[in-house]
Please model this.
Amino acid sequence: MTINPRKLNTFLMFKLPSAYFTGVRTKYLDNEKCIVSVKHRWINQNPFKSLFWAVQGMAAELTTGALIIKKIKETDKDIAMLLVKNDASYSKKATGRITFECTEGKLIDGIIKKAIESREGQLIALNVIGRNSDNIEVSKFSFTWSIKVRA
Model:
């Protein structure tokens, strides 16, 4: 099965409804990057009338998770993935459409190859930047994933 933005958005509706109903949507996915966006609306706002930090986190996490899922599917191996750490910083009020982008797909190739060859769990930290429609950074995330070939 090929992983693409449309399939990921359908997946959200059934498996991660909180992300789907708050407007998180995958816009682009290839071997090197994933772009996810969400528009600030009433349903996903905080008391300060900006995008709630957890919604930003869901969108940012999806960029890294989608890249890993895509790469795992391409190996045809039984590989487990688990989020083990998350760091975030917020630098500007998130209003309007916020776009999250991870461009570290090539790093994932190497870590999956290492996990397959060593048969041991591997850790990878992937970075995501959230920007508003004026291309101004509003948040930064780092997600550390564990990747391991199942026995």
